[in-house]
Please model this.
Amino acid sequence: MNQKYSIPYVNFGLQWKFEKKNLLPIFEKVFRKGQFVGGAEIDILEKKILKFTNSNYSVALNSGTDALTIGLHLLGIRPGDEVITVPNSFIASTAVIVHLGAKPIFVDVLDDQNINYKMIEEKITKKTKAIMPVHLTGRVCRMDKILNIANKYKIKVIEDAAQAIGSKFNKKFAGSFGKIGCFSTHPLKNLNASGDGGILLTNDKRIYKNAKMLSNHGLENRDTVKKFGYVSRMDNLQAAILNFRLNNLKEIIKKRRKNADLYFNNINNHKIKLPYENINEFNTYHTFVIQSEERDKLKNYLSKNGVETAIHYPKPIHLQPAAKKLGYKKNDFNITEAQSKKILSLPINQFLKKYEIIQISKLINRF
Amino acid sequence: MNVSLVEEKISKRTKAIVPVHFTGYMTNMPELIKIAEKNNLPIIEDACQSILGSINNINAGNWGITGAFSLHPLKNINVWSDGGIIVTNDKKIDTELRLLRNHGLINRDSVEILGYNSRLDTIQAIVGNWILPKAKSISEERILNANFLDSKLSKIKAIKIPPRPKNYRLVYHLYIVFAEQRDELLNYCIDQGIEAKIHYPIPMYLQKGVSFLNHKKGDYPVTDKHCNEIITFPCDQHLDKEQLEYICKTVKNFYESEI
Model:
């Protein structure tokens, strides 16, 4: 497991090398002021992030997971309700539904790994209170179709945009389609903090105010508790780091898209299925996922040749031991299950050199 | 918590008791444990304000099935963000907690139970590791400061010092005394440059957030009385003797000039 890769999947070492000179004074500034919880950096971040989302309001939180929890809570999700979502996401999108006492209703995915909008309508019942599409890999779901269905049945949409900051569909930003959008700023994300972090987006002033309050114990002011809340605040330090990195987000996205283009132009192996971008899409490639019938062999082969890859995610949520109580079984979601055996995430991070991507492509062509 | 009132509140549906070791002053755990054992109820200690507090040399957090500490920047042992620690002597709970804090992941790809995202950042753990060896001396300095304040303030008739039982180790996350004309005293102290505070001016049971529990004013008369009398003075390890004396002198001046 501790193999040293010549091309690692992520490269925090390089990020630190490039940012050290800028980050150290930022750390010092926050520590010197002694304002750790709440504070100016949070306010700045909440304004700055709007530029990448075209939303009216944002709330900085301690994780993308808690952004989803607070979002669902504010959409009125209560025990017994149903929320429609996908089984091929990271576990958190399902866990937040279950923790609120609601039931996740899974819908299978399309070949682009995003929710199959054509299968949503048949899953809607009287208990359905929300649809939670997941913009996996940094590619926005078919939000036009999903919003049509949601409007028809008067169901709210909460976007799990954890992997999709800056992504667009029909020129509209991820996170700005639904009533609520949620980002993660986990260290592995395109816009990353140096710890857990997340952001909730909305155009609804009431949701904004309530999200802010819920994330801070439900406190209306220092002494008055209006609703029972959570402690889900983002740290001022993480906000300061994000404010600095937000200045580069456009460049980061550009670089990742360029890396994707390099793969498109250099991988030429009919046994490998590449991701694609439709004309009305702007994908930010949080992950660059290829599909291969011989995935495990390919992963092994790349590993032996010094290339670290990852799988997002090898075990679908409905087949996890934790999901036993939900009552799903094998073969319930054929596309998800088939993809889980084929998908492989290639290095795509913004620190990769052109020759490294060409080298990976050549290895894949030779496979 | 008035431990003698606990038993009458226990019903068939009672699943746990959560004593709060408020201000660094522990709940009467020897008595509470008897009640919990008799009724077969687990105790979860809210020891957020009481790290290194003890009764009969047994530390806060060690009495219940689990104990919770906060590492919030304002706590005696603090990191530079929100943060917390659970302690337990139960191996099974320890294992489950480690899963729960990290999405229930038993390894990168397998989710054993549905969990939360409640991890402490490494940066904050580094801060915690740096301050932890100083924990004892920090609490000792706070105790010395509190003893000093006690000795001076107890001479003022309008100030009542809470009981200081000999077998308790009080760690003074907050140094609180009861004061006559509390609001006037608070304003006066603030005017004189002392950052006195009230922890907390509105009792929990009267908060809007719990209105669905249908409590009404007067349901908890001792809590109500305290709300009108409590005042918190600075007591932290960074204060010097001159500052402590200034607090005592200011309080004394307030009551003397009132006459």
Chain A has two domains: 12-246, 249-366.
